[in-house]
TrEMBL record:
Keywords: Signal. Residues 63-100 are annotated as: Disordered. It comes from Candidatus Moduliflexus flocculans. Residues 1-29 form the signal peptide. Residues 77-88 have a biased composition (Basic and acidic residues). This is Uncharacterized protein.
């Protein structure tokens, strides 16, 4: 079966339009790398138990928030994640509001990673705050 000239051109144009749209959408993607070792200028100095939300909003267009009910469409249940220092050097007692980020059961310590990961992790990481329920989600919003 032979296609008429105008049909061939229409199919080719449609395919080019779809492919062009896919390439255009890919060209807007960019990689950003964030760490919590230092914030952008004027946004404070990272510290144990510090709230993190909009420190990277102006510089990278990224915000962090905790959605407590598992429904990202509701906004009255939001809280801010906290920074946790690794190694437990700045740990306060739970009575002062300082909860650990993780427990290493193999070593029997808190906030200290296994030896295989020591060169891969920084000094701070994000954790849920003490008010977040078990089903809470960390939302990273790209603006």
């Amino acid at each position: 079966m032979r296609l008429k000239g105008w049909l061939k051109k229409s199919i080719a144009l449609c395919a080019c339009t779809i492919l062009g749209g896919m390439i255009a959408s890919l060209s807007f993607a960019q990689n950003i790398q964030l760490d919590f070792e230092a914030f952008p200028p004027g946004k404070g100095v990272p510290a144990d138990e510090m709230e993190v939300s909009e420190q990277y909003k102006d510089s990278h267009g990224v915000t962090f928030i905790i959605d407590q009910d598992g429904n990202p469409n509701t906004t009255n249940d939001r809280s801010k994640p906290l920074l946790e220092d690794r190694g437990g050097s700045n740990e306060n007692s739970p009575e002062t509001g300082d909860l650990k980020g993780f427990r290493n059961d193999k070593l029997g310590v808190v906030d200290i990673e296994a030896a295989a990961y020591q060169n891969q992790l920084g000094n701070f990481f994000l954790k849920l705050n003490t008010d977040a329920p078990a089903g809470a989600n960390l939302l990273i919003e790209f603006l």
